[in-house]
Amino acid sequence: MQVVAGIDTGTQSTKVLCYDAESNKVLLTVSAPHQMVSKVDGTREQEAIWYLEAIRSCFSQIDESIRKQIVAIGVSAQQHGFVPVDKHGEVIASVKLWCDTSTSEQCATLTKKLGGEERVFSLLGNQILPGYTASKVLFLKEHNPEAYARLAHILLPHDYINYYLTGEYSAEAGDASGTAFFDVKNKRWSEEVLHAIDDTRNLLSMVPPLTKAGE
């Protein structure tokens, strides 16, 4: 057998599927649930460690004879969430999720600073919405300055799991398109939007390099 494992970390759970590339058969699917912190102000948060614990739980459910034959792993995960990481690779605050709506004020601030909705759309091909990542970075800056001072890497849950598995920081354009600091048309990070979030720090150096699947 040549086993390929697929990890899917969503909002409610992590699932792992094992597929035999030689027989073209799905061997098994296992899952582990996630908790979520919900508040009346629209906060929806998780802890990054919960993703890692769920991944470990999933693989512990797979028989060792299959685990030993895994030759490749693919990862998919929820978009838009913000995993703030310091220079040592440590997560420094809770993960604000795609369904978190507590950052509406930050969305309005950034949109106004960048010249309004039409200007934002011309920059990004997108709008700055509460579900997207940009407002979550500004929220951390305004509401948790001690953690923000340690910020060295701006990651999505998908990026963080890839970092956990490989030790490398990377992102792909599909995920990046949901951050609200990515220029969809030109497929590059928007330095102007990152500068609007914080003009005193080089946030462009904190977003991961863009890579393609398989790299």
Helices, strands, pairings?
Blueprint lengths: L2 E7 L3 E8 L4 E9 L3 E2 L5 E3 L1 H13 L3 H4 L2 E8 L5 E3 L9 E2 L7 H10 L3 H8 L9 H10 L1 H6 L2 E3 L1 H10 L6 H4 L5 E2 L4 E2 L1 H7 L18
Parallel strand pairs: 1-6
Antiparallel strand pairs: 1-2, 2-3, 4-5, 5-8, 7-9, 10-11
Overall pLDDT level: 96
Element string (H = helix, E = strand)? EEEEEHHEEEHHHHEHHEEH
Main sheet characteristics: 4 strands, mixed
> Strand pairing plus helix content: what structural class?
alpha+beta
Q: What is the class in the CATH system?
A: Alpha Beta
Query: How many helical stretches?
Result: 9
What portion of residues belong to β-strands? 15-25%
Computed CA radius of gyration, to the nearest angstrom: 18 Å
**In which order are the strands of the major sheet placed?**
3-2-1-6
- Domains (count): 1
Helical content (DSSP H or I, runs of 4+): 25-40%
At CATH level 3, the topology is Nucleotidyltransferase, domain 5
Q: Enumerate the spans where pLDDT stays under 50 for 5 or more consecutive residues.
A: none
Number of strands: 11
CATH architecture: 2-Layer Sandwich
Annotated CATH homologous superfamily: ATPase, nucleotide binding domain
Query: Alpha-carbon distance between the termini?
Result: 24 Å
The global form is elongated
